[in-house]
Amino acid sequence: MRPSYLGKIQLNWCDSCHTPVLGGECACGAKTRPVAITPPGDARPAFRADIDLVNAIFEEHFGAPLIPEGHCALMNKVPDPDRMEEIILGGSVVAAIRYLPDLERWDPLPRPSAARYLRPNKRYVIADDGAVDSIRTGKSLLAPGLVAIDDWVRAGDEVFILDRTGGCIGVGRAKVDAAAAREMERGQIVRTRKNTASDAVPGPASWDDAVRANTQILDTYEGASIDFIHKVRESHPGFPVNVSYSGGKDSLATLLLVHRALGPVPILYADTGLEFPETEENVRAVAEHYGLEVVRAETKDEFWEHFSREGPPAVNARWCCRVAKLEPVGRIIRERWGESLSFIGQRKYESLSRKNSPRIWRNRVVKSQVSAAPIQHWTALHVWLSIFREGVPYNVLYEQGLDRIGCFMCPSSDRAVLKRIKETYPSLWAEWEGRLRSWQEQNGLPPEWIDGDGWRRRESGTDEDDSYN
After folding, report:
1. How far apart are CA 240 and CA 325, in angstroms?
2. 307 alpha carbon, distance to own chain's centre
3. How far is CA 378 from CA 222, 319, 323, 343, 361, in A?
4. CATH of segment(s) 118-199
5. Which of 296, 444, 448, 449 is at a distance of 20 to 30 A from 222, taking alpha carbons?
6. In the predicted structure, residue 1 carries a pLDDT above the cut 70
């Protein structure tokens, strides 16, 4: 899939502090270097569940974990038919992981720089000295250049290519099983991939260190966003102000900025009845932390009534945002204020539609709401560093491996994410699957409609606007 260019890639690295920096100079005074990540480049911190997942994948495949304790690791989601994420360590993309939904498994895709962090105990080959230079330049490992191959290697496996001293000279995909490779006199053993020189510089650092390294940059971004909030407020005199809060990181960062700029304002929360329990708890905790009123826009039976007529929402038929969020929000605004000014955690790095969105707009469904996006030009890392600096309670779901917060059964979620949700919240998922099975039986749909990708996609679906626009 093609990369999506939604804005300038802002990720840099300080080799002195061993931290990501969102500009050309670290707070320590050192010049930073750009990190070559795949667009849109909305990298985020790797939380404990992310680290555990990556290390489990690498342990299973190569017999060694990838991410060491005490290092700043980041994840960068890249375009893929389901889910693929780059892993950044030491200022370099050292690997990626890709989910294969039909096989229900993750595959590791290491780069040579991964060898700065692990020594493979399985799925490796050893090349003859005479083949080293050609492999370093991207040539494949051929049978005459093979010295040894690990017994675990099967055709199609990702493997490390080592020299006789154990140093990594490349990575690639095995073309044959280990047993067959040992019998070959000619032909391709490993097709190399991404054999570029490593610029990873390993070194320990914490996220507190990363916050300090980005102090001036955060001050600049937060100051510009606060100026924007003041200007929008001044241009809409008499409009009651609120923050549209979802329990996610972006709306939390927006709330922090609005609170600093304007003081306490109500939280406007779309209570769809489809949220995770942790999201409900975060709304309560944040409101309590800042002493804020929560104005709930509650969905009654509208979602399930719509479901009974049209079936489940799909990636290309997201009627759910209008029915479960926008229309209830519009009702509560009209009842409570008549109209309002809502500050919203929209960012251009999220999607093409949000990149093309104006920074101030009126929603076509919720005409009584003027919306404004203070963090439109922030990346996810700006958001997280700002939250870490403030020390406020964020949604614990991020620490459990979710990178976006919304309805638990959102059809726009990757199958990798839905599998994790199904395993973590079996009762929630069983209720949803029961609804799906009822619709399946009523409409004579095949089993794969539920077990595969069927319910998430419509043959002739017409997508609706998302929950912001």
Report:
1. 20
2. 28
3. 10, 28, 29, 15, 18
4. 2.30.130.10
5. 296
6. no
